[in-house]
Specification:
By secondary structure, the protein is an alpha/beta fold. It contains five helices and eleven strands, in the order E-E-E-E-E-E-H-E-H-E-H-E-H-E-E-H. Strands 1, 3, 4, 6, 7, 8, 9, 10 and 11 form a nine-stranded mixed β-sheet that branches. The protein has a two-stranded parallel sheet with strand order 2-5. A hairpin with a 2-residue loop joins strand 3 and strand 4. Helix 1 packs across helix 2. The relative contact order is 0.17.
C-alpha cells in the first residue's frame, strides 16, 4: 500500500470535482462499477458520473459487488471468472490499486474468498489489492485472516444495529482482531468517531465516505484533520 497516502477519499456514483485536493497528501478510491449477481449471472453497471482529479493523484478503482436476494449466488468458476474479468478490464489511467467492496453474507464467504485468491493471482503482482470489511467482521470475527489482500478497511459508519456496540468497544480501547484490519479504517464524513483513544488514527490509512459530492470546504476540513 506504499503508493497510497494516509488520507483516501471514497468518490461514489455522483459527480465529483476533486481538482483542488493535494495529490501529495490525498488519494481517491473511486467507484468504477457495480456488479450485481443474479444466480450464476452478472449485470455490470459502469460508473456514469464524471470524476475530476489533479494530475498525479493516486487512484484506487473500487468494484462494488451486490447480490440480487431474489436470486442467491450460484457459485461457480464461471461466475468468479466473469467478476474478475470485469474488475480487471478498462481500468482508468493512473489506477494504482484495486479495492473490492462486497458485504458477503455467511454462506457467500467461501465464494468471496476464492474470488479474492484468484484475483490476486491474475492481477499485476505489484498492484495492491484492498477490500472493505464490515466493522463487525473485523471486531467479532476473524474469517478474513488468511485472505490475500494488502489491507481490509473496517467501515465504521452506517453500521446499523451493530453501531452502538462497535463504537462502545472501540471507545474502550478494543482494537480490531485481525492485523489486516488495523492498517486502515473507513469513516463517514458526517459520522466521525469520537472518544477514540489518543493516537488511534496515527498509524492507519483513513478512508472517508461522503454521502454527497465533495466540495472545497469539506475537503479542507478532512485534509486538516487527517494529514
Amino acid at each position: 500500500m506504499k503508493p497510497f497516502p494516509k488520507l483516501m477519499l471514497w468518490a461514489w456514483e455522483r459527480p465529483e470535482d476533486l481538482r483542488s485536493l493535494d495529490p501529495a497528501k490525498v488519494g481517491v478510491a473511486y467507484l468504477c462499477q457495480t456488479l450485481t449477481i443474479h444466480g450464476d449471472g452478472l449485470i455490470r453497471a459502469p460508473r456514469l458520473q464524471p470524476l475530476r482529479v489533479p494530475s498525479g493523484t493516486r487512484l484506487m478503482a473500487v468494484t462494488r459487488i451486490e447480490v440480487d436476494r431474489a436470486s442467491p449466488i450460484t457459485a461457480s468458476d464461471g461466475l468468479r471468472d466473469q467478476i474478475i474479468e470485469a474488475v480487471l478490464q478498462d481500468l482508468r489511467p493512473g489506477v494504482r490499486g484495486i479495492q473490492i467492496d462486497f458485504d458477503a453474507k455467511l454462506l457467500e464467504r467461501p465464494f468471496y474468498a476464492d474470488l479474492l485468491r484468484t484475483l490476486r493471482q491474475r492481477m499485476n503482482a505489484e498492484m495492491p489489492l484492498s477490500m472493505t470489511a464490515l466493522a463487525s467482521w473485523a471486531l467479532f470475527d476473524d474469517w478474513i485472516r488468511d485472505l490475500p489482500v494488502d489491507e481490509a478497511v473496517p467501515m465504521c459508519f452506517d453500521m446499523g444495529r451493530d453501531d452502538r456496540v462497535i463504537r462502545d468497544r472501540l471507545y474502550r480501547g478494543q482494537d480490531f482482531r485481525d492485523p489486516l484490519a488495523r492498517r486502515s479504517v473507513g469513516i463517514g464524513l458526517l459520522q466521525p468517531p469520537s472518544k477514540l483513544p489518543g493516537g488511534w488514527f496515527e498509524h492507519r490509512r483513513v478512508y472517508i465516505f461522503n454521502h454527497h459530492s465533495w466540495n472545497e470546504a469539506n475537503l479542507k476540513i478532512v485534509t486538516t484533520r487527517y494529514t
